[in-house]
Amino acid sequence: MSRKIFNGFPPRADVTPLPNIFFTEALPPIENINEVKVVMQVFFLLSRRRGYPKFVTFRELNNDPVIVKGLQSQPAAVDELLKQSLDSAVQHGILLHIPISSNNVPDEAYFINNQSEKETIARVLNGTLKIPEVIIREIEATVSAEPLDIYNLYEQNIGMLTPILAEELQEAEQRYPADWIQDAFKEAIRANVRNWRYINGILKRWDREGKKDGKYVGDSKKEGDPDKYIRGKYGHMVHR
User: Fold this and answer.
1) What structural domains and CATH numbers belong to the chain?
2) Less Cβ crowding at N or C end of the chain, within 10 Å?
3) H helices of the chain, where?
4) Positive or negative CA dihedral for 170, 176, 177, 178?
5) Coil, helix or strand for 234?
6) Which of 231, 207, 205 is nearest to 217 (CA)?
7) Could you report the per-residue pLDDT of 137-167, keeping only the tens digit for each?
8) Are 139 and 126 in contact, with CB atoms under 8 Å apart?
9) How much is the pLDDT for 199?
10) What 3-state class would DSSP assign to 95?
């Protein structure tokens, strides 16, 4: 059966706003077309949402006819492809999400990643903002209790490393105490924001304002062999 050809946009068609930075920074790293389809539909749905806070749930997306039609031609089930696409969008820093329960049914709430929504999520998580008929499920921190180097922390909790990112992690490991790095990953996981930009922001804030234990980076000194950062598993990916 032949596909119906799109006839073009009619005059004065409604417009869904997208930040310019989406096209210049968020879109280029995306490699999976399913993620693009899902993200664009999330923006569309949220642009038409009324009330506060504005979010869309996994169940809602899994029943959305545009999502279903866009993903059903793939071999895997729609819900599996949708979950993969949403997880990827969260890892890319495009979306934020928190685990919820509605009518005693586990679900996920997804928000656009911007400063306003970060503040909204913080208020939801600390209990100062209540969402009617929604309960926030406890977020499980997956950082190991055993000390891990920053590269393993990243791979276990965020995803695959790239050479450029390995250099950024090396700089952070040289600058910040190991327990700060471990705690920053834990804080990001509890906030359900699994990306390095957020974790690095936590470390920079502690560096600027001081960590709650009163320990400042300027007061700590790394000891040992300075070449230890270029001899390990990812030594070939980093430079002096």
Assistant:
1) 20-136 (1.10.10), 150-237 (1.10.10)
2) N
3) 20-21, 33-47, 58-62, 65-71, 78-91, 115-126, 150-157, 163-175, 178-190, 196-209
4) negative
5) coil
6) 207
7) 865 544 444 556 888 888 777 777 777 888 8
8) no
9) 92
10) strand
Structure tokens given for 121: 């999520």
Helix axes 163-175 and 150-157, enclosed angle (nearest 10): 130
| SS3 assignment, position 126 | helix
Tokens of 145: 């209790």
Q: What angle do CA 137, 141, 143 make, to 5 degrees?
A: 170
**How far is residue 135's CA from residue 59's CA, in Å, rounded to a whole number?**
15
8 A C-beta contact, residue 42 and residue 110: yes
Q: Which residue is listed with tokens 């965020």?
A: 158
Q: Which pair of structure tokens corresponds to residue 234?
A: 């990812």
* 24 secondary structure, DSSP code: I
| pLDDT score of 127 more than 70 | yes
Q: Of 130, 197, 125, 210, which Cα lies nearest the Cα of 168?
A: 197
Instruction: Name which residue leads in pLDDT, 216 or 82.
Output: 82
Please compute the mean of the pLDDT values over residues 172-197 and round it to a whole number.
Answer: 86
Q: Identify whether the C-beta of residue 113 lies closer than 8 Å to the C-beta of residue 93.
A: yes
Residues in a beta bridge with 95: 112
Question: From the CB of residue 3, how many other CB atoms can be counted at a distance below 10 Å?
Answer: 5
How many CB atoms sit inside 10 A of residue 153's CB? 22
